[in-house]
Amino acid sequence: MSARPLDLLDLDRLLTPEERDVRDSTRRFVDARVRPHVAGWWEAGTVPARELAREAGALGLLGMQLEGYGCAGLGAVAYGLACAELEAGDSGVRSLVSVQGSLAMHAVHAYGSEEQRERWLPPMARGEVLGCFGLTEPDAGSDPGSMRTRAERDGDDWVLSGTKMWITNGTVADVAVVWARTEDGVRGFLVPAGAPGLTVREVPRKLSLRASVTAELSLDGVQVPADARLPGARGLSAPLSCLVQARLGIVAGVVGAGRECLETALRYTGERRQFGRPLAAFQLTQAKLADMTAALTGAALLAVHLGRIAEAGVLRPEQVSLGKLNNVRAALEVARTCRALLGGAGITLDHPVMRHMANLETVLTYEGTHEVHQLVVGQALTGIGAFR
Fold first, then answer.
1. What pLDDT sits at residue 7?
2. Quick one: three-class SS letters along the chain?
3. Would you state the pLDDT for residue 1?
């Protein structure tokens, strides 16, 4: 392989030395702790989540974009670069980190009381305490406003009942941020693992994100004290704002998955010989490699640009939707094309391509389906909402 595809435009010029250090240290972590093992984790449908979380915490990767409480306080671009390296290892590993930091920790940081922040955020930043984010329900995925989970007052306490589905980190979480409908609108609650009435079941038989914990949370009259409610969270805008933060990680993260596939294809086509010469010597192969490099380079530029907008404090939800729409589509198409370039070898776990391809099918759906983000962008363009 004569060139790393994303180096052609010298993208490092857009980054600060600190951002490059974050990227490089995360890449070393992935090289040492993820790449040698992830195919086996994926095949077995397991992941050492707690062990990885502690190691990621030691590197400052958990809640890295948050200020104070033991968090690194880095910018959105640095966070995106870390997500790209984690997802180059596996989307499930990136999900572990981004759900912890951008969903669970961000919810506490943005909407929690000072007591809640002091209690939960420092051990979560160290990876000693894991969190999950309970918003999606079996009948309320793309339409979270239709959630059925309810929280009702019982004296000074709250009683929660309902079901949350597709919850990353669910079976290993020490605390769940659960969103529920109340008489005053949607509110967030911190529900500790093992609370009476809380049942957590791992989702079985997954064909994607297999190196990730995915669970169903059932709440049957779960009673929590008044101080379990996130006092600053009022309405559906609170959980949706958390999703905007997490989607920034996806926008950048999928570039890493696509890059891993493209670099694998470059190596393979340079070594594999057919008709007396390397596959990379054929015009059709080079055309595909060039097109994929163009798509991923554009996606990487978009990720950095959105990160800079976020750092300026002017990021809008529709901009993140455009980023997720474009970049996940680009990465998935790259993975599919690379799988074809590897031929039969592309369907085995000896190479990471089909694993990434399967994972990206889930990334296309979660935190807003492809179609939902199309409608968000469409509404921004036309001023007309087309969701109902």
1. 87
2. CCCCHHHCCCHHHHCCHHHHHHHHHHHHHHHHHCCCCHHHHHHHCCCCHHHHHHHHHHCCCCCCCCCCCCCCCCCHHHHHHHHHHHHHHCHHHHHHHHHHHHHHHHHHHHHCCHHHHHHHHHHHHCCCCCEEEECCECCECCCHHHCCCEEEEECCEEEEEEEEEEEECCCCCCEEEEEEEECCEEEEEEEECCCCCEEEEECCCCCCCCCCCEEEEEEEEEEECHHHECCCCCCCHHHHHHHHHHHHHHHHHHHHHHHHHHHHHHHHHHHCEECCEEHHHCHHHHHHHHHHHHHHHHHHHHHHHHHHHHHCCCCCHHHHHHHHHHHHHHHHHHHHHHHHHCHHHHHCCCCCHHHHHHHHHHHCCCCCCHHHHHHHHHHHHHCCCCCC
3. 44
* Single pTM value for the model: 0.96
The whole-number pLDDT of residue 48 equals: 97
The structural domains of the chain, ordered by start, are 5-125 (1.10.540.10), 131-228 (2.40.110.10), 237-382 (1.20.140.10)
> Among residues 19, 216, 260, 367, which one is catalytic?
367
Kindly list the averaged pLDDT for each block of 10 residues, start to end, along the chain of length 388: 76 96 98 98 97 98 97 97 98 97 97 98 98 95 92 97 97 98 96 98 97 97 98 95 94 98 97 96 97 97 98 96 98 98 96 98 94 96 94
Catalytic residue check, 43:
no
